[in-house]
Every structure is written in structure tokens, then in C-alpha cells.
Amino acid sequence: MAAADFAGSKQAIAYALCKHLRLDPDAVSSTSIEESDIVSLFSHIVKSSEDEIMKWVEFSSSFVGKDGEHHLLLDNLNQDLSQKSVLLGNGFKPSAADIVVFATVQVFMNHLGEYELQKYPHVLRWMDYIQNVVDFGTTVRKINVAKSVFNPPSHPKKANKEDADPSSKKVVSGQKSVDKSDASVGSKKAAGETNAPENKANPTPAKNNKPSGDKKKSQEKSAGKANEGVTDKAPQKTAEKDSECNVSILNIQVGLIRKAWKHPSADSLLVEEIDLGDGNVRQVVSGLAKYFSPDDLVNRHVVLITNVKPGKLRDIMSAGLVLCASNKDHSIVEPLIPPEGAKLGERISFAGFDGKPEDVLNPKKKQLDKITPDLRTDENGIATYRGIPFTTSAGACRSSVPNADIK
Question: Does the record's keyword annotation contain Nucleus (predicted)?
Fold first, then answer.
């Protein structure tokens, strides 16, 4: 590819950098964008920058200028991203470096076939994240990232006794008839014994002369019936208990954060105004201040539980719970990302769990405490409940944090 193919990259860089720095994109003239190379354009907008950022700006400049070396540069970028989600730092907040590199790399990546794209899995993961959290305006064409295909495990209903195999019924009924015939033979035998001459030395009533074997069978049969009643009731109680605690009782929906601000009396908390569509807007308090600024969250799509009991957190009312993925030491926390095209307010579904959500969860039952241990992201970052994906009409929800807890 020639440098001319990257003409739109500079416009995307200028627009996204201005948005990132809260500047007016119109303040950068189209003439200065056209006449500047990437390094000088960056320096014109970002007045001062760190050496680490400039290293990536020069990478972008090389990517545009060195025709024929794109694959080698992509290999290096793929390796660098293998252990992190963004180019600088250990978190998820994009920097100016991510903006510049993405705007140049995406042009080349959009010209690759599916086979070649799969050579750069970490670059693809990074690009999918950046293009969904950074505003590049209308000059950038989003890259289509092939999502993993999921075949959720089926959950067949347990067969009732009436639905059992007919052949097994025949075996059981045949066994019963044999038992009956044995019983009748035994009773006849017992009757015959009562007609035998009475032992005068040790007179015993005929009804007490029942053989010990028959008595043992009778006792076993009675015990079997008793145990059968216990085993029948146990699974029923377990099933009822499980149905109260599975994910179907949660109302998990797709939302869009319209506003966000710092909690007035808690440094670790942020307050968000989340749009659920159809005029349904609710206020939610989240412990995300350590990981995101309010501006980072505005216009971000999220996944939240909307049937938790509303209550005050440090005197501010909260009516929802934004679900986030976090690593083991909680140094990285990120709200789950719904797929592009998911509708505001639509309920997240889980294959095999089709129950109706409760109107409001009962805190005394500690239902969330029983369900959240089964919420995790898999090795691909897909959000799951017991291995079953969080599914919307547009696909599965995900995170940049693989093998993470979700709370």
C-alpha cells in the first residue's frame, strides 16, 4: 500500500485526538492536516508528550512510509499486545498512542483477508476494543472482527416417570408380576404348612410360622418403599432450590451511560445516568472511580442488573448494578461490553435458563451471592454463566479481561 492510501488516517487522528483532549476538532484546519505528516500533526495537537507515546507515533509514521514492511511491523505490534489490552499502562484506558496507531493500522487491516487477519489475534482483539470506545468520527471504517462461534450446552428437561422408556415399564411390570406369583406361591405354601399336624410339644400359632426368608423380603420391600419416597422428594427439593438461585431470576439489560459524575461524598464511587430505552433512565452508583474518569464512561454501552432493590449508597440513590469483569487482584476492572447493534433495554438471555425474572430481588435471600460465583469470562473474554454466553440479539457480550470474575 502507498502513503496515499492512508490519507484518511490523518483526519481520523486529528478528530480523535481533539475528542480525547477535549478540544474542538474544527480548530484543526483541513489544510494543516493535509500538509502535515503524522509526527508533525500529532505535535501540533498534543503540545507535549512522553517518550513512550512518541515511540508509537513514530511507529505509525513508519507504518505509513515503509511500503512492503507492514506485516513485519504488525508482527511486532501483535507481540507487544499479547499481554495487555492497550499500548500504554496496565489498564483499559486508551491513550493518544492507541489513537494514532489504530488510525493507521486499520487501513491496512481492512484490506487483509480472513486467513491473514487470523495471524494477528492480539491486534484484532485490541482493534475491536479501541474502535468501540474511541470516537474517530466518520472517516474510519470499522474492521469486522469474526466473533467466536458458540454452541451452548443443551439442558434437556429431566424425564418424568410417565416419559420413561416403555421397555423399562415392561421390565418393571414383569418383575412385579413375578413378585406377585412368588408371593402367591409362598402364601399357598404357608397355607399348606398350617394344615400340617400340630406339634404338641411346642404349640405355635400358624400365623407365626412364616418363613424367615419371606419376612426378610417383606422387610426389604417395606424399606425400599420408604427409601423411594425419600429419594423422590430429595431431587424435587434440590430442583426447587436451584430454580430460585439461577440466573433466570435476574433482569440483566443493555444500557447506555448518558451522564457520569463523581460521588459527592465518596472518592471511590461514580454516579451514572443510564438509558435503557423507551424513556427508561435510571441512576446507578458504581465503584469505578479508581479505574475510570466520568468522561471515560459517557456514551459507553454497558450491561447491568436492573431488578436489584433500589437503595442509597452514601446518601445517593442507586437503582441498578453495572456488571464488570475483574482480574484476581482487582487491579483491572472493566464494565462488560455489549456487542455492536444490541438494542437499549433488551434483556440478556442464557440458553437453557428461560425463567421470568423477579420484579425485585430479595436481599435477605442473598440471591446475588449465590449466582455471581458462576459469572465469568472465558479464555476469549466472552461473558458467561456456568459456561453459557451472555447473549443479545446482536451476539454475545464480552470483555477485554479473559478468565475473569464478573460482579
Answer: no
